[in-house]
Amino acid sequence: MKNRSISSLKKGLLLLVSFSIFSGNCFADRIKDFADVAGQRSNQLVGYGLVVGLDGTGDQTTQTPFTLQSVLQMIGVLGVTIPQGGGQTQLRNTAAVMVTAEFPALARPGQQIDITVSSLGNATSLKGGTLVMTPLKAADGQVYAQGQGNLVIGGARAATGGAATSVNHLNAGRIPGGGLIEKAVPSLLADEFVQLDLHRADFALMQQTAEAIGRRFGLGTALPIDARTLNVRVPVEPLRRTAFMAALQDLDVQMVSGPARVILNSRTGSVVMNQAVRLSPSAVAHGNLTVKVQQTPTISQPLPFSRGQTAVATQDTATLSDSGKENSLIAVPQGASLDQVVKALNMMGATPQDLISILQSLKSAGALRAELEVI
């Protein structure tokens, strides 16, 4: 009974591996996963305001004069007359803050957004404060939203005598739904064409996308501009346009392999590569480590009286040796891929810094057929 269970488990694992292999060779992504509609993006908003109602934890106005100046201007707008000498007023319940928010794509007036409030002066805590109405502007200088509300801060502070302690960060908080949209961004979806922008420039992926759209909606619907930009002809009627865009973004496209790339993290020693990375014949010596990649021509001779032809092929091999260790010669047969070289180096106990230096040397020698990016 136990052997039967083990046999069933092995068959299940084999089936799972087989399914993974076949599914990995024919995977597809939706257009919405690798392309954006031009004009449908978020925008950054920023504003300067005041937080009031603090429990003696606000700015020291003698050290942050802009806070007092802002308070005097605000109450002056509200019709409050400032007596002579009021410029020396000490305020401890008010803090100058910067307010930031993200304007969602296609947001309309009246909708609410979350805002973040951060201290600008020397306030010790914004907990318990209220943000006074603050205009939020975009990069074009126009006001698109107003922010106001009570701050939510997940922290606490306790002080006694000359000692104080705090939990979490108290000089920044959020106001859920504290921003009110006042102005909409003009939509770019009113034309006959909609522009799609791929996340990465790739002619092969662009061709696959255009062909998939053509098969689904008809030839001439997709008009590629370059490796990143694609114009799509859409219906003019709003109802048909909405249905068309929904079907377009859910359309599956056969993905193509990206360019060969190796990512090195010099701080952590991490090495990440894709399956397209290959090595050319080369040899690198780094300390006691030696890496040698070579190609050996092989002749394929057909059987007598057969219709086959003699062919010449190359067999790639990679060898690694460490002169400081015995029996440390490791051969990587059949295909000098970087993945095999890295595994062999790890078996020999090479440090991440050794690996990074070897990869950089291979790239400098032109043997690493991939883009090397150091972060």
TrEMBL record:
It holds the Pfam family FlgI. One of its GO terms (biological process) is bacterial-type flagellum-dependent cell motility. It comes from the Bacteria. Keywords: Bacterial flagellum, Cell projection, Cilium, Flagellum, Signal. It is found in: Bacterial flagellum basal body. Residues 1-28 form the signal peptide. GO terms for cellular component: bacterial-type flagellum basal body, distal rod, P ring; outer membrane-bounded periplasmic space. The basal body constitutes a major portion of the flagellar organelle and consists of four rings (L,P,S, and M) mounted on a central rod. PANTHER family: FLAGELLAR P-RING PERIPLASMIC PROTEIN FLGI, FLAGELLAR P-RING PROTEIN. Assembles around the rod to form the L-ring and probably protects the motor/basal body from shearing forces during rotation. HAMAP family: FlgI (MF_00416). Belongs to the FlgI family. This is Flagellar P-ring protein.
